Description:
The protein is mostly helical. It is 59% helix and 4% strand. The protein has a two-stranded antiparallel sheet. α3 crosses α4, α3 packs parallel to α5 and α4 crosses α5.
Amino acid sequence: MRRALAGLALVLICGAAGAASRYDELRHVINRNTGYAHMTRGVNMYTIIALRSCVSEADIPVLTQMIFDRDHVLALAASGVLVYMGAPGRQALAGARAAATDMTTKLMLDDSLREADDPSLRPLADYPLTERERKSIRGCKTQGAWGPLRGVGGHLGAPM
């Protein structure tokens, strides 16, 4: 019985450590691709493209957790990427909206849900970038589970 409990505890600790590690990795990608304008840190399309190139549906729980981070840039980037993850991303946004308790998060998620439902939403792969801009996007250190993100030089992402 003790061995079973110890094994269960080990599995839970390793799972939590893995999620925390992934959270940190995605935070690093966001921070490396954050825009600065007028001494203000913010999310731009480089941030969204870089983060999207690193995530798959398996990362939706981590992205949903990021929506509730006190760092508004992390929250904006996570909700922005979920917009581009199709039906599973939209479902995660709707679930987060139902769980949100503060008005800032609710409004951010309302905007993301409207964007996800917009029929004129441009796929990330069609976002116009120069070759120099493509090379400046810094995604994950490790290769993702998806094929190349068309239009983003050398980085990986889900098909758009």
